[in-house]
Amino acid sequence: MLTVSQTAELLRSFDNVLILTHVRPDGDTVGCAAALCAGLRRLGKTAYLLPNPELTDTTAPYFAPYAAPEGFIPDKVVSTDIATAGLFPENAKPYGERVDLAIDHHPSFESFGRENIVRPEAAACGELIYDILAQLGPITPEMALPLYVAVSTDTGCFAYANTTAQTHAVAAALLRTGIDYQTVNKVFFRTKSRKRMQLEAAILNECEFYDGDRVAVLSVPLSLMERLQATETDAEDLSALGPQIEGVDCAITMRELRPDVWKMSLRTGERVNATEVCRLLGGGGHAAAAGCTVEAPWAQAKRRILDAVAQVVPDCRIDN
Fold first, then answer.
1. How much is the pTM?
2. Which of 91, 234, 305, 311 is a Cys-bridge partner for 230, taking CB atoms 3.0 to 4.6 Å apart?
3. Which long-range CB contacts under 8 A does 241-245 form with residues at least 24 apart?
4. Distance (Å, rounded) from C-alpha 167 to C-alpha 93?
């Protein structure tokens, strides 16, 4: 496993770089990739991001300036905030065996790159990218803005329990570059479309509770998305809704990606290790935030994730 300084020296030797982001890209993977691309370009390198078809309206503006042109053939491939090659988008799968450097912060990271660096204690992969870029030279506003997106979104605007003193120190350093962080905060944390609010109302209305109301299951079937004509942007980060319910320390958001294919997103307190639960179903992540995918009809998929929670948590009682 590489150190930060070793990673920086490796990147100095790279050129014609293609940077990969994960499926259903969030602010962390996009922000890390964009910032790293900007840093490499400042060194005179040719670098691009592999287009990601699942970008939302909120993340796309940070991605667009660095998107690779059609036909670009890289000499080196780097992944950011991807725990496993199984999270590559379809157009990234041809690079699955040739990732030259994988940069991540998930405890479930599978070290699939030829070279790897991971910092499981980091709240966001953006913290690690910041340290790597700082080894390569001054952090410019072009790097700082997407890095702020990365760090702020993975910490819920610094409200989640994963936020540390180091997270705030990195954020402070980014603000000192003069970036427009107010707009980021407004767009990502203080603005909701009407359809998003309708989604939240419908999801909460059908929310199911288990284990003495400590476990909540929130379902987002395709039929609901279609009925409300909601977009991916409207449904972004819906997993943050469940943990806001008083008394809930295990919120399970079931998002139907395709018919009978459910993306499970867990947000948990200290009692429930989300990574251990999702690992039972082939997924992973962090202790308090993890995910997995289950292919089954809704009732069966729900039972499988609830059984996994009960298997990990000795005092959990799934009684309905």
1. 0.92
2. 234
3. 241/200, 241/203, 241/204, 242/207, 242/216, 242/218, 242/267, 243/267, 245/207, 245/216
4. 32
